[in-house]
Structures are given as structure tokens and as C-alpha cells.
Design a protein that fits this description.
The structure is a homodimer of 259-residue chains.
Chain A lengths: L4 H12 L4 H8 L10 H12 L5 H11 L10 H13 L4 E5 L5 H9 L5 E6 L2 H13 L6 E5 L2 H10 L7 E6 L6 H11 E10 L17 H19 L3 E6 L5 E6 L2
Parallel strand pairs in A: 1-2, 1-4, 2-3, 4-5
Antiparallel strand pairs in A: 5-7, 6-7
Helix pairs in contact in A: 4-7, 5-6, 8-9
């Protein structure tokens, strides 16, 4: 997801505090967090089905990102692989990504699209993208990416004003500020083509969607949880989409536009 | 998965024994088993994103199946929803299903395909399919289904002999005897079209793929586990496919034919 003031401050505070060293270490082990019944099962998937097939550039970007203090924001390797497969299955060519961070899912997307594929990628923070960009260039797919620094809503609003942009995207990946997902959705539902796909990331929000009211939650998890749960309810009743909420990564809700 | 002697005997024995009443009840609660960190999280997905959208015929078939003693073999509602979405995303028209049981995933498939869509469905046991067939007929989609009772391998072998059948399927769902998955794969890789999708079900096998050697496992779980793990290793290195193993249901491995 894109860096947000709340999340960034939270994580920075965590990495400097000594009070929860074990948890801080675990969060910094990129790829260890999952929604599954055990870490062993998650590792099994990674080691059996993901890592042996992970393209070199993605492996490199994942390892570079692992050293970054905000790495819990990155897309996991299993989700990166799933997205790449999905993009090929739907023959995607023109896509959008809201929330880039260092670019792991963006790289997976760029590798999956045909050579003349295009990705409009937006993030409020260019610095993190610059970490991944050299690797994306080395992979030979940077030419597919149109990166825009800044908030996504103004860009979407501009596109929505233009009738020709309606239905112009095959696929949109939203991995950004949870308190804006529904605002993005109101625009994306017209910008994605009929039969096209919007994927909302982190919709199971670390499993916190079912945490009891008195459960100890990190501040930013608790802060955004209400927005995530509201999003899930709204997507469930939106007649313009058909959905599937799958426990890949931190929970992805796939939404196919019906009309 | 299709009924197998080992699994059926095991389940029958379980339902008559008093030694593990709690576990037997849990298995009979269709939809409660999952690979997720908690049952509460799984229920959240079902209640938020699945049940409100589940088509009436599928709900009815699920409820009828829940009363059947072998109901742990059924496809879960979240997986049924995911498959339906996937089929629409890939514009599937000509599909195959190996392993039908009462027909929940078959019904989901039939509802997702266009009116002239076709499904070749095979199961060694017609009796279970007959439980679901009236509901499938009432849903108005039975005309898409060509059901064949008997083992699938001979049917596949016959099709493979015919060059015209090569690359003739958009999608194949394999949810049957785990000790034959690799045998199915050797044939399906030629029968599915280039760019088409084979989905293997139960590839995380109740999480038992990471159970320690001395863990108490049900007999049929232990029996088939080696086959499942061998399958996973084989799919991981098969250059003719691109894969993604996702923790939906009991684990589904999606395989897109590359060449």
C-alpha cells in the first residue's frame, strides 16, 4: 500500500522502540506474515510453488525491499505470482496501479503484460519507487510504466470527466490508503471496462476484521480497520460487480465489472 | 473430490465411531474447514462476501449436500464463488470437470458459462450426482452438462488419441482421486488449449503437507498426502505451465498452459 502518515509514523516508532522486539523482527521478515493456519504452511507454499519460479528481477526487488524499514507494505511473493498469472489469464494490456511502494507488484504486472502493454502507476512517494526502478529497468519492462507521483484521486477525477477514458482499463490494482478505497471505487467502476477487473488489496487486514473489541491492535491497524470493513460490506452489495474475496497475501477482493 | 474406497470407508467408520465425536461434528459442518488462521476469519469471508451473493440454486445444493455423510468432499462456497468468477474472467466456454460428487462446483461452472457453454463432467459415482441434478435442472443449466459415469483416465486417453481434441478445452477442474492427478496432468496438458487453465483442487491437503512425521492424521489424509506433495513438486517444475497455488478451500493450484 502507499505510504500514509499514520502507518509510516507507526512503523518508524515501532522500529525504534525496544518494547516489542520480537514482533518488529517478524514484521521485517518480508513474506512471513500470512492469514494461514501456520507459518509452516505459508512457507510450504512459498518454497514449493513460488520461489522456484520467481523471476530473477522480482527476487532481487524483494530482497532489496526486505532491507527497507517499511517493508511490511510490500506485496508478498505469492501474491505477486498470483497477480502475474491472473493478468495473463485475462489477457490484460492496459492496467492501472494505485499504490506502488518499491514496485514489487508493479514489476510482476510489467513482466506479465505484452511488450506493448501499459501501466498507469500512482504513488504519493516517488522515493520508494526509485528503489525498485533500476531493477525494473534492468528487467527490460520499465517502458510499459507511466509513473505519476501524487495522490490518485485527482488523476481519477480528471479521467472520469473524459468519456473516452470510461471502460479503458482491463485491470486495476488498488493497494493504497484504505480510507480512500471507496472513493477510488466510485471512479474505477467507470474507468475499468465491462468484464474488466479491479483488485482491492488488504481486505482482510491482518485478520483484524474479526478481532474482538478489546484485542490489542497496532494503532494504524485499528485506525483503518473500520474503513476496510466498510469497504467489504459495500463491495458485497454492489450490483455492478461480481466479487471473490480470497485469502492471498493480506486478503484480495477481486471485482469484475458487470455493467 | 470423487468418492474413493479409502476415503469413503474412512468417513463411514468415523461417523459410526464414538471416539472423536467433536471432530466428526465439525467435518459435517460443511464450510467450516479452512486453511485460515481462525474459523472466525473464514466465517467472516463467507458471511460478508460469499453468502449474500450465493445464487439460490447453489445455496440449495449446498444445504442438501450438508446432510450427506460424505459432505467433506464438497467444494466450499467460497471456492465455488471464486471458480465462477474465474470462469467469467477467462471467458470460458468449453470446460471439463473430473470429480463431481453432488455437483456444487459443477453448478457454479454451469451458471458461469454462456448459454452455449459445455462441460464434460466425470465421476465414478452417479448416485451422488443424482442428488444435485434436480437442482441443476431447476436452475436451467443442466443442458450444458455432459455427465459420464466411470473413471476419467480411459476417457482422457481416448481424447488424447484424437489430434482434434488437443487444445479443445478452455478450463479443466480436477477434484478427484489424488493418486491419479499426475496421470490426469499428463493428458490434460495436451487437451487444454494454450493459454487455458487447469485447476487442481486440494493441493494443500488440509494443511497436512507440513504435518510433522508423528502427527496424528486420518488414514486417508496420510495415504494421499505423499501423492499431493509429489504433485506439488511436479507442477512447480513443469515448464509447460505457469502456476499459482492459492489457499482457497483446501488449496487450489491454478496452472495456465504456456505451450
Amino acid at each position: 500500500m502507499a505510504s500514509t502518515d499514520v502507518a509510516a509514523a507507526e512503523v518508524k516508532a515501532q522500529t525504534t522502540q525496544a518494547e516489542e522486539p520480537a514482533k518488529v523482527v517478524r514484521h521485517q521478515e518480508v513474506g512471513h506474515k500470512s492469514l494461514l493456519q501456520s507459518d509452516a504452511l505459508y512457507q510450504y507454499i512459498l518454497e514449493t510453488s513460488v520461489y522456484p519460479r520467481e523471476p530473477e528481477p522480482m527476487k532481487e526487488l524483494r530482497e532489496v525491499t526486505a532491507k527497507h524499514p517499511w517493508n511490511l507494505m510490500t506485496t508478498s511473493a505469492d501474491e505477486g505470482q498470483f497477480l502475474g498469472l491472473l493478468l495473463k489469464l485475462i489477457n490484460a494490456k492496459n492496467t492501472m496501479e494505485i499504490g506502488v511502494y518499491t514496485g514489487y507488484s508493479l514489476l510482476s504486472t510489467a513482466l506479465a503484460l505484452p511488450d506493448d502493454g501499459k501501466i498507469l502507476a500512482m504513488d504519493i512517494n516517488r522515493e520508494n519507487y526509485d528503489i525498485g526502478l533500476p531493477i525494473i529497468e534492468k528487467a527490460g519492462v520499465a517502458h510499459k510504466i507511466d509513473f505519476r507521483e501524487g495522490p490518485a484521486l485527482p488523476v481519477l477525477d480528471e479521467m472520469v470527466k473524459n468519456e473516452d477514458m470510461h471502460g479503458s482499463f482491463d485491470f486495476v490494482f488498488v493497494d493504497a490508503d484504505k480510507d480512500n478505497y471507496l472513493n477510488y471505487h466510485k471512479r474505477l467502476i467507470d474507468l475499468v471496462k465491462v468484464g474488466g477487473l479491479i483488485a482491492y488489496d488488504n481486505t482482510l487486514w491482518n485478520g483484524s476484521v474479526v478481532a474482538p473489541p478489546d484485542a490489542p491492535l497496532r494503532k494504524y491497524v485499528r485506525y483503518y480497520r473500520d474503513f476496510v470493513m466498510e469497504l467489504n460490506k459495500a463491495l458485497a452489495v454492489d450490483p455492478r460487480i461480481e466479487i471473490s474475496q480470497i485469502p492471498v497475501g493480506d486478503g484480495v477482493t477481486l471485482c469484475r465489472r458487470n455493467y
